[in-house]
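Hi R.,

As promised on Friday, here is the backbone we talked about, encoded as structure tokens. Could you run it through your design pipeline when you get a chance and send me back a sequence?
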């Protein structure tokens, strides 16, 4: 048996092993050098044909050659595994000094913020917050609030009726509708509670308005009501002037212009001086005695005032918003400005 092949293999193997750049190449080289089809394996198969006296020497030489090459392979494998691990750690490295990812912070919608701000102002004055049904009957939405059958607000051109509507056959009172204001809670609350009354009623209301820059068929309103034995129009003006100062700031001024509302007498609209101009903000007035009579109060003994304001209008005036649709389209580029 010629052992020159082994000598040649031992001479070239170290360079080949050292040149293996990665573990996959090293595994392939191991198969070539000491695998089942390697020169060492072929020589082992020929030991049976060798002279019996030479077999021990030849066997030991093959064994020694295989061990030497395996040791070299193992040593290179350790180096390559360490390098691969370092490369993996480097690629997966996390810089703990970088700022952590911060999730997007949510906030209340501007309409909700405005309602909370307004109700907090009146809560600080001793008012309590009430709510009522959005689907009303005509009695509470109109009749109990001194609104006659002939009033334009009762027609389909202004009001959304839930059931079929017959303008000629209607008698008022039991027709179902989407409330056009939060004022029905005036009657509902006074029916269930004796005076004194100090409430504000925030909520969603509905009217058949055209969807444009200043109108929406769905919007929000805050109604206020104060009833006691000696309430005057001066109390109304003082209360709303205080509200304007709290909501718009110390530079806000108010003025009251005569107007007409079915459920108040006398009635007025309040204007606020804000951003160098007068702005119509809300309607108000002293509660009409007919409203007290409808809910069982003695109109000879009690007086009161009521007011109603649109939440969207308050928000638009205070924040300089020109289009009411921005408040309903849920564009985060706009809503995110009012955190």
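Update: got your reply. Pasting your designed sequence below so it's all in one thread:
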């Amino acid at each position: 048996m010629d052992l020159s092949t082994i000598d040649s293999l031992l001479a070239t193997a170290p360079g080949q092993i050292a040149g293996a750049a990665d573990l996959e190449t090293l595994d392939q080289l191991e198969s070539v050098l000491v695998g089942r089809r390697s020169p060492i394996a072929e020589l082992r198969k020929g030991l049976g044909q060798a002279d019996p006296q030479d077999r021990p020497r030849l066997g030991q030489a093959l064994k020694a050659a295989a061990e030497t090459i395996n040791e070299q392979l193992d040593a290179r494998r350790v180096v390559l595994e360490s390098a691969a691990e370092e490369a993996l750690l480097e690629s997966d490295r996390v810089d703990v000094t970088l700022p952590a990812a911060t999730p997007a912070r949510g906030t209340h919608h501007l309409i909700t913020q405005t309602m909370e701000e307004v109700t907090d102002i009146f809560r600080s004055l001793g008012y309590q917050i009430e709510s009522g049904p959005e689907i009303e009957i005509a009695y509470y939405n109109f009749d109990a609030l001194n609104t006659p059958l002939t009033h334009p607000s009762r027609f389909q051109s202004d009001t959304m009726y839930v059931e079929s509507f017959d303008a000629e056959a209607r008698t008022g009172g039991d027709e179902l509708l989407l409330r056009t204001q939060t004022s029905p809670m005036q009657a509902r609350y006074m029916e269930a509670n004796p005076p004194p009354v100090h409430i504000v009623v925030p909520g969603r209301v509905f009217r058949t308005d055209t969807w444009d820059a200043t109108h929406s068929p769905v919007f929000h309103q805050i109604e206020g009501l104060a009833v006691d034995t000696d309430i005057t129009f001066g109390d109304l003006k003082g209360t709303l002037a205080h509200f304007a100062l709290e909501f718009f700031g110390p530079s806000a001024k108010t003025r009251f212009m005569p107007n007409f509302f079915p459920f108040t007498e006398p009635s007025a609209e309040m204007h606020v001086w804000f951003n160098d101009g007068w702005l119509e903000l809300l309607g108000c007035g002293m509660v009409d005695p007919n409203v007290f009579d409808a809910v069982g109060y003695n109109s000879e003994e009690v007086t009161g005032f009521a007011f109603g304001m649109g939440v969207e209008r308050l928000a638009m005036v205070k924040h300089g918003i020109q289009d009411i649709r921005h408040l309903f389209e849920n564009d985060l580029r706009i809503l995110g400005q009012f955190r």
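One thing I noticed while checking it: The first strand starts at residue 128 and ends at 129.

Thanks again,
M.
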